[in-house]
Amino acid sequence: MRNETALGLQEARGPWARVARFALYTVLFAIFAGPLLALMIGAFTPTVDPTQFTLFPDRLSLDNLERAIDRGVLDYLLNSFIVVGGGLALQVLVSVLAGYALARKRFRGSAAVLVVVLATMMLPEEVLAVPLSVLLADLPVLHISLVGSLAGMIVPVAAWGFSILVMTEFMKEIPKELEESAKLDGAGEFRIFWQVVLPLCRPALGVIGIFGFTMIWDQYMLPLLVATDPAQYTLPLALRSMRSDDQVGIGVLLVGAFLAMLPSVLAFLALQRSFIRGLTSGAVKG
């Protein structure tokens, strides 16, 4: 008996089919996981010549890590954590509040607001660089400068069109009968939002949490505009700076790249269940 696969093909059985699947999985693993494995091994291999790199080193060492710490990699890593922590917290807050207003409330111009939010996702960072630097140098209303501070890297990422759209579309699928029942029980607006709507949005929170973390963590243009001193560099920006330094060995760069990759992987592993539920929540009806 043959089973239908997701593509509508018949799944073959037998020893040759198992060999073919094993070969296919091996190739896919080498393509997707191979570079990450090579990076991890290279970061802890005591070599200074990239042409001598091997996946099977004679020994592992922490020499590259020690030299990277001497170069201030941990300080850059701390700056990245501060920026991604503050930026992601603000981004989630703005996204759930904006999504709730756009999905659950009726007001004139809501469609235009969604179009504007969508339009912000179409503009590349290079186009926004000049106006953003002007705004950060003289923040409207407050008339303060955020240039040269980590706050200047946090505030611009507080609102992201992708996260707002995800929360809006997810909240639209929540039955309005739940709100009406809560109102009959005497619940106020804030209580309905906090105890009824928000708990049902955990899958969507997992999606915007992972994508938001990755987006903020990988920021290069924004720290480049804001930072005025190397002590304010985030890890991605510091890696570019160290790469142009001839005195920094390939091992230090590999350690920095490994440390830059690790938090994103850990964030996905921590939120993968909610992430997958969020992606598949609308796939099955009924």
From TrEMBL:
Domain spans labelled ABC transmembrane type-1: 77-271
Record's keyword annotation contains Cell membrane: yes
Transmembrane segments: 22-44, 76-100, 107-124, 144-171, 192-217, 248-271
A UniProt-annotated Pfam family: BPD_transp_1
Chain coiled-coil ranges: none
Cross-referenced InterPro entries: MetI-like (IPR000515), MetI-like_sf (IPR035906)
Lipid bilayer topology: Multi-pass membrane protein
Localization, UniProt: Cell membrane
Record key words, sorted: Cell membrane, Membrane, Transmembrane, Transmembrane helix, Transport
Sequence similarity: Belongs to the binding-protein-dependent transport system permease family.
Protein name from the UniProt record: Carbohydrate ABC transporter permease
Organism expressing this protein natively: Streptomyces incanus
